[in-house]
Amino acid sequence: MKYFLVGFMGCGKTTWSRKLAAKLNYEFIDLDHILEDKAGMSIAEYFSSFGEDAFRKLESDVLKQTDYPENVVVSTGGGLPCFFDHMAWMNANGKTLYIKLSPKTLADRLENSKTVRPVLQGKHGDELVEFITAKLAEREGYYLEANHIIDGIDLSVEKLETALGITAI
């Protein structure tokens, strides 16, 4: 089975994908890492060198052309579900799970994150919360197309398994 975890940046997609894959003894794929390998540079560098349109096209190619193992948990980029037919493609090729968090919680996490996120440069406090609130309003309709939705607060691998309908063998 293929599981695609989606949600806003900072919701924990990579962390929880890795933990779920380990628990299920599945492969783990981070599409952002594959994109960076393919591009030969960081996402931030690619974005600033070629712009968002080129980035989204490359991101789409990476999603659809990656050779996925039979059993895999995939961490997607925060914007990936919101472009082209990506949510429909992921839903047709596996199960999707949206890790849902409030703008305030996301802002708190992102403000303390060590990951460089160009789109957030210089935004702090209320300005960051307002930015995330606006972006989430644009994106959440796509995220809500996921097969499963889970509250990202107090998340555990067991809660992920339950949300995805995974039962122990």
TrEMBL record:
Pathway annotation from the record: Metabolic intermediate biosynthesis; chorismate biosynthesis; chorismate from D-erythrose 4-phosphate and phosphoenolpyruvate: step 5/7
Cofactor: how bound: Binds 1 Mg(2+) ion per subunit.
Cofactor field: Mg(2+)
Residues the record lists as binding ATP: G10, C11, G12, K13, T14, T15, R117
EC numbers: 2.7.1.71
Keywords: Amino-acid biosynthesis, Aromatic amino acid biosynthesis, ATP-binding, Cytoplasm, Kinase, Magnesium, Metal-binding, Nucleotide-binding, Transferase
Task performed by this protein: Catalyzes the specific phosphorylation of the 3-hydroxyl group of shikimic acid using ATP as a cosubstrate.
Protein name per UniProt: Shikimate kinase
